[in-house]
Sequence to fold (126 residues):
Amino acid sequence: MPRPRKWKKVCCLPESNLYGPLNTSEIEKEIIQMSVEEYETIRLIDLEGLTQEACAERMQVARATVQNIYKDARSKIAESLVNGNLLKIEGGDYQLYNESERMHGCGGCRRNRCGKPLRDIIRMES
Fold:
């Protein structure tokens, strides 16, 4: 029996989940899928300037796990930029911080989405 996947803790969902070239004439390009936890490692390490170890603590996983997720995320971003492919952020094995864990969140979430379930986020944005 395979080992169950461990949920990675994520502070908030991205503002937008689709990125790519502005020229829409090349719609038939490949769409690159990036998971929410890959997005979170990019946000924590590259934007917030955390170390991989600090990122691992925030996401409540091992540092080696973060290192692998981060490597995959950077590869997908590079492929999207170099080849002009669309990058779509969705899915993965993640859980948003709940109310008792908010102290671990970034504190600067856009639209106060930190720790809110997706149905509440959709309701807030409507």
